Amino acid sequence: MIDLHDILKESGNHQRDLLGILHRTQAALGFIPAEAVATIAKHVHLSASEVFGVLTFYKSFSLEPKGEFTITVCLGTACHVRGAAEIAGAFERTLGLKAGETTPDGKFSFETANCLGCCAIGPFVVVNGTYYPCATSRTVEAILDLCRGDKASA
Ligand code: FES
């Protein structure tokens, strides 16, 4: 398994290399460990706070390990007027999570987004890169059943 030192060894050490390093670290580890930030910052000649600034600006980076399934509900305007808040609420109630949290068993992470670029087919839900357009409360149940392995009801 690739680790941070392998990633840094294969990466440039300029500021322009930071995003590539962060993307490779996120892909390899599933998140950016807080203790890795200082090492990365030193490698690209930035301060740790500058690297944290980049990490927290982009939603694709996480400082926490993600669940096996990351569920993202779009709450952008077009999805909101079609009922996205109810969809998000159903996931939150069923999983006992707020946006940005992961279930204690590591199975589910729940997130929201402001627009996923598919406004015409909202409410829009994404689970580990699989798209669920025109989501309803039935979609919520089907997604959770599928993730839990109950494929017969999905
Ligand atoms: S507002 Fe939801 S995809 Fe654009």
CATH architecture of the largest domain: 3-Layer(aba) Sandwich
Stretches with pLDDT under 50, minimum 5 residues: none
Shape: elongated
What pattern of helices and strands is seen along the backbone?
Answer: HHHHEHHEEEEH
Number of helices: 7
CATH homologous superfamily title of the largest domain? Glutaredoxin
- CATH fold annotation of the largest domain: Glutaredoxin
CATH level 1 class label of the largest domain: Alpha Beta
What does this structure look like?
The mean pLDDT is 92. It is built from seven helices and five strands; from the N terminus they run ααααβααββββα. Helix content is 42%, strand content 13%. It has two domains: 4-57; 69-153, Glutaredoxin, CATH 3.40.30.10. The two termini are 34 Å apart. It has a five-stranded mixed β-sheet, with helices on one face. With 154 residues, it is an alpha+beta fold. Strand 2 and strand 3 (108-113) form a beta hairpin. The structure holds FE2/S2 (inorganic) cluster. FE2/S2 (inorganic) cluster (FES) binds at residues 74, 76-79, 115-119, 122, 124.
Short synopsis of the structure:
With 154 residues, this protein is α+β, with helices and mostly antiparallel strands. 42% of the residues lie in helices and 13% in strands. It contains 7 helices and 5 strands; from the N terminus they run ααααβααββββα.
